[in-house]
Design brief:
- By secondary structure, this protein is an alpha/beta fold.
- The protein has two domains: 35 residues, no CATH class; 151 residues, Mur ligase, C-terminal domain (Protein-Tyrosine Phosphatase, Chain A).
- It has seven helices and six strands; from the N terminus they run H-H-E-E-H-E-H-E-H-E-H-E-H.
- It is globular.
- This is UDP-N-acetylmuramate--alanine ligase.
- Pfam families: Mur_ligase_C.
Length: 190
């Protein structure tokens, strides 16, 4: 789903035609495209709650994800792990603006601390600033420093019809975190 995927599909068809492939063959090939790992990938569902793993990690990608998911009913429980203090500092204002504009009133955003790979990076701008900015737009946003504690909060908030969306980049363990949420929803009887 999503306009971004439709635009990408049309671009792929255009490239195939420009390369000399017949439109019918190009369309058939496009019809077999299963999508990309971690782009709105449905990990599983339990108790009426669907868990989605998504690579969204900057304002444009997060906006595209929200637009696509809001085309369907259900509240979004958004978990975002920023992929570093530097990127968060650079894109912070745009991220606040995008989330404030694109979140629905009943959506909930949880931000943990940015992934930190060590070094001397300036850690003075963190997730707290983003959460405060989003909350100032009257959207629901919470900073929970620890990812595991964010998982606890997501499970506590989840109700039938919700979609939990795990977003972030540069951390291969995010997919495992998303899968663990499905297991926990099952265990909780949700």
């Amino acid at each position: 789903p999503g306009r971004h995927n439709a635009a990408n599909g049309l671009a792929a068809l255009g490239a195939a035609i420009a390369a000399g492939l017949p439109l019918g063959e190009a369309a058939l090939a496009l019809g077999g495209f299963a999508g990309l790992k971690r782009r709105m990938e449905i990990v599983g569902a339990a108790g009426g709650v669907t868990v989605i793993d998504d690579f969204g990690h900057n304002p444009d990608k997060i906006g595209a994800t929200l637009a696509a998911l809001h085309a369907f009913p259900g509240r979004l429980l958004l978990f975002f792990q920023p992929h570093g203090y530097g990127p968060l500092k650079v894109m912070g204002d745009a991220l606040i603006e995008r989330l404030g504009a694109d979140m629905a009133d009943d959506d909930v955003l949880l931000l943990c601390d940015p992934v930190y790979f060590g070094g001397t990076v300036d850690r003075s701008t963190g997730s707290e600033r983003i959460v405060a900015g989003v909350a100032a737009t009257e959207k629901k946003a919470e900073h929970i420093p620890n990812r595991a504690a964010c998982g606890d909060r997501l499970i506590a908030l989840a109700r039938p019809g919700d979609r939990i969306v795990v977003m972030g980049a540069r951390d291969d363990t995010l997919s495992g975190f998303a899968a663990s949420l499905v297991e926990r929803l099952n265990d909780a009887g949700k």
